Amino acid sequence: MRENGRAFDRIRLLPRVAVDVAGRTARTRLLGLPVPVPLAVAPMAYQTWLHPDGEVAAASAAAVAGVPFVVSMMASRTVEEVAATGAATVMQLYWLRDRGLFRELVGRAEAAGCVALMLTVDVPLLGRRLRDLRGGLVRPANVVAANLGRAGGGLDAVGGAGTSEVAAHTGVLFDPSLSWADVAWIRSVTRLPLVLKGILDPDDAALAVAAGVDTVVVSNHGGRQLDGAVATAVALPAVVDAVDGRCEVLVDSGVRGGVDVLKALALGATGVLVGRPLLWGLAAGGAAGAARVLDLIGEELHEAMALAGCPDVDSARRLRTSVAGGDR
Ligand SMILES: Cc1cc2nc3c(=O)[nH]c(=O)nc-3n(C[C@H](O)[C@H](O)[C@H](O)COP(=O)(O)O)c2cc1C
Ligand SMILES: CCCCC(=O)C(=O)O
Question: Which residues are annotated as catalytic?
Answer without folding.
Answer: 221
